[in-house]
Design the sequence.
C-alpha cells in the first residue's frame, strides 16, 4: 500500500478580543473549520477534507495553529479558512479570523518557517520600540532565537513537499 500524502497548514488566530486566545480549544477550532468547509464546499468538500483532518498543534498564547489534511484536499481547506469568523467556547462566541502563514509537507518544515516568521516579527517590533527597556527585551528574544537556530543547523535536510 502507498503511504498517505499529507499537508500541514500553519495559521494564526487573529482577534480584537483578548479573551479569544485564552479560550481557544482544539475541539472548538476543529469544529469551526469543519463548519466553514461545509458552508463553502458543501458535503463533498467536507467529506474530502474530513478524511485526515486534525488540529495537530494549538498554542493559545501565541494563537498559532497547525492543521493536517490530505494532500489532495488542502486547497479546499485553505480556501475555506477565511470563512472562519468566530470560535465558540463555553457558550461564548468570539469573533476572529484565521490567517494562513504556510503550507508544508511536514511538521518540521512548518516549524522552520514559524521560527523565521517569528524572527521577522521581532525585527518589526524592534523598529517600533519607543524606549531602551523594550529594545533590550526584544533583542534578548532575538538572540535566543538565533542561538536556537545555530544548534539545529546540523540537522538533516527535509523535503518541503509544497506545491
Sequence:
Amino acid at each position: 500500500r502507498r503511504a498517505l500524502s499529507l499537508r500541514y497548514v500553519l495559521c494564526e488566530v487573529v482577534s480584537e478580543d483578548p479573551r479569544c486566545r485564552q479560550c481557544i480549544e482544539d475541539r472548538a477550532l476543529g469544529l469551526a473549520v469543519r463548519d466553514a468547509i461545509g458552508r463553502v464546499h458543501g458535503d463533498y468538500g467536507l467529506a474530502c477534507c474530513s478524511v485526515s483532518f486534525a488540529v495537530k498543534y494549538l498554542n493559545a498564547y501565541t494563537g498559532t495553529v497547525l492543521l493536517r489534511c490530505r494532500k489532495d484536499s488542502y486547497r479546499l481547506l485553505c480556501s475555506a479558512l477565511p470563512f472562519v469568523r468566530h470560535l465558540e467556547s463555553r457558550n461564548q462566541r468570539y469573533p476572529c479570523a484565521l490567517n494562513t502563514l504556510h503550507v508544508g509537507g511536514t511538521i518540521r518544515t512548518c516549524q522552520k518557517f514559524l521560527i523565521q516568521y517569528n524572527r521577522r516579527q521581532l525585527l518589526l517590533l524592534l523598529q517600533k520600540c519607543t524606549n531602551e527597556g523594550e529594545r533590550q527585551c526584544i533583542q534578548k528574544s532575538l538572540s535566543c532565537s538565533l542561538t536556537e537556530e545555530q544548534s539545529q543547523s546540523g540537522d538533516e535536510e527535509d523535503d518541503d513537499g509544497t506545491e
The chain has two domains: 1-105, 106-148. The two ends are 24 Å apart (CA to CA).
